[in-house]
Specification:
Strand order of the largest sheet: 1-2
Number of helices: 3
Number of strands: 2
Distance between the termini: 38 Å
Shape: globular
Radius of gyration: 17 Å
Structural class: mainly alpha
Largest sheet: 2 strands, antiparallel
Order of helices and strands: EEHHH
Helix content: 25-40%
């Protein structure tokens, strides 16, 4: 079984020659990360994008223009990741917004209180 890393702080860590094939990364903060000589093949990224540069090209605006959830992603800031107690209220609020949008898209707008229906 693969090793599970949960709630770990790898700030300023250096990974050299690491194989992350089929790795699952969730609620991970890559602010300030630098990736050199990496292979990004069949990679799916879903999250807040700000100042994303790929091979010297800033693709942030392109990505955000085509992301239907862009307005809601800004509610989950990277500084809250890894601190569930301080981000619980924010997460409930964002969940409520996501549910409201999904419900509105189906034509059945519902009222939400404190992020919960």
């Amino acid at each position: 079984m693969a090793e599970l890393f949960e709630g770990r702080d790898f700030t300023d860590a250096v990974f050299w020659g690491v194989d992350l094939t089929n790795a699952k990364l969730r609620d991970v903060n890559f602010t300030g990360a630098r990736m050199k000589n990496v292979w990004l093949v069949d990679v799916d990224i879903d999250g807040l994008v700000d100042r994303l540069v790929v091979n010297g090209v800033d693709v942030t605006e392109f990505v955000n223009q085509h992301d239907p959830w862009f307005a809601l992603r800004g509610m989950l800031r990277p500084d809250s990741i890894g601190r569930p107690a301080s981000s619980a209220g924010r997460a409930r609020c964002c969940l409520g917004c996501v549910l409201a949008v999904r419900t509105e898209q189906s034509g059945q707008l519902r009222a939400f209180v404190d992020g919960l229906s």
